[in-house]
Amino acid sequence: MNTWIEKQRHLIDFTLASLARRKGKNLGLLFIYTLLVFVLASVALYTHALRTEAQKVLAGTPEIVLQRLVAGRHDLIPPGYIEQIGRIRGVQKKEGRLWGYYYDSVVKANYTFMAPRDLKIERGEIIVGPALERSRGLAAGNGISFRSYSGELHTFIIADVLPQNSELVSADLVLMHEADFRAFFKYPEGHFTDVAMSVANPQEIKNVAIKLMDSLPDSRPILRDEVLRTYASIFDWREGIMLALLSAAILAFGIFAWEKAAGLSAEEKREIGILKAIGWETGDVIKMKFWEGLLISLTAFFAGYVAAYLHVFHFDAILFESVLKGWAVLYPRFTLPPHIDGLQVATLFFFTVFPYTAAVLVPIWRAATTDPDTVMRG
Amino acid sequence: MLELTNIRKAFNQGRHNEYWALDGIELAIPEKQVTALRGPSGSGKTTLLTILGCLARPTEGRVRLKGEDISGLPERFLTEIRRQTFGFIFQQFNLVRGMSAIDNVILSAYPTGRPRKDLLLKAESLLAGVDLGHRRDAKVEWLSGGEQQRVAICRALINDPELLIADEPTANLDTRLSKEFLAILERLADSGRTIVLTSHDPMVVESDVVDFIVSLRDGKIVDEK
Known about the structure:
The structure holds two protein chains of two kinds. By secondary structure, chain A is an alpha+beta fold.
């Protein structure tokens, strides 16, 4: 056993010395490889964290949102609908919501106007999201005017700015008093944008949705699970787009790394011949190269992964945010709490470390199984 | 110690450029003596040496080491025999560039799994024995040809081989260094080692150190004395 351990130590010693002897090649390889892992891990970490965060945010949203459709388009919920919904068995809580979009031609961005029921806002005052605060250079106490769709100018005082940690969902939000909202959008009293509701028994959500469609045929119930799925598919799509955009670069890096790893220089071939001639077994040579490949790939994997972690969770993924976030023009600025998926790490490990190790071993195996007498002939 | 029976060795066998480098070699290498293989270029000296040193297999014939037929052994066993029994000194020295002299010396002992401390002690003593103690940490490419050869000799001796094999050991040395090599060879022979070398340098072949001369031509033994 001691002999075996000592032998492995010798092999690792030789491997380290061998890596140091070809500093240029190995550092170049390590850099490219680390970059490859960094890009892949950044995309994976970012989309996964975004997905997890969105799930967390959406977990607090209503189980069903009911919209009304007229001629296939979203229309206001008229008075009487909420009472009718209340008569459906299983509906625990129902609440009409007021929200709408406003296009600000100054910054060429859409805002979401909303009249919250659980937040007290004085008439003539608004609370704005952090991105809006940044884009318009606003602060609490400032005034801002919006021209409504009917052409009237409405002026509001900024009462407060929403905290930055809510920016994922509040970047473009403008919260106002219900009366101001109705006056701005000319919403008649008793009309709502949609209705949020909760269901007593979560297993009954689908049944409640069916009952809603039966009793209110012009309505469209949207389930929280459907929203979650949509979000997931949007992030999957964005991740796919990102990877597609990067695929050429990834492929080029991959080919370069493969070429560097798989191609044996004349000097390396000579060295293998010498080792075999002086008494190294084919297995010893392969083990030595295996250690070499493993050392490079593990170093690159961990360095790339740690760099990606820092990039995503400490530097807000500055390299990819415009592609992966996509938020009209008002990009939310927020730091994602770290989320790491073990399966994702394992998949990345499998697709980066294993191919590299194989790429190193195949040509070495070929070179190591040749007769050592070639070295005798120079 | 080593016996070759009807050894034939072909290159490119079955192809249009098939070539028989050795043809019907019958040879017994005497133990604890210095045997020199001589002959013109292309006579088969190096090919014969690779077969004697288990670096290559004969196409036909048998190789016996201490009475044991080793011709059909798998590569793994041949490597083991090579490591335990033979020490090689190559014409081009074949040292690993970028490594120090002492690291090159212990390189062939790595697979034995002996502790590094022991190997370093042994290597230091071997290097000191050939006046290279002061150059132990020098990179081999910084050494002169003669020094490189002495490092190669130390590497060949690190595993205490019974049999030393040297291919054209003085081909890259000037007269002074060749004499130094012969002095080392004499010391090794006196220590009871069996030595086989190839050379067409008369200074080596006709020296007193050599006990047995085998002359080759066109892959055949033409003379033994």
